[in-house]
Amino acid sequence: MYLKSIEMIGFKSFADRTKLEFEPGLIAIVGPNGCGKSNVSDAIRWVLGEQRPTALRGAKMLDVIFSGTDARKPLGMAEVSITFADCEGALATEFNEVTVTRRVFRTGEGEYFINKTPCRLRDIHRLFMGTGIGTTSYSVMAQGQIDAILSSKPEDRRVIFEEAAGITKFKADRKEAMRKLEQTEANLLRLADVIREVKRQIGSLQRQAGKAQRYKELRAELRGLDLFLTRRRLAALDVRLRELDAAIGELTRQDADGQARIASAEQACAAIHAAILENERSTGAATEAAAQDDSNLQHAHEMIRVSEQ
Ligand code: ATP
Ligand code: MG
Question: N or C, fewer C-beta in 10 Å, the chain?
Answer without folding.
Answer: C
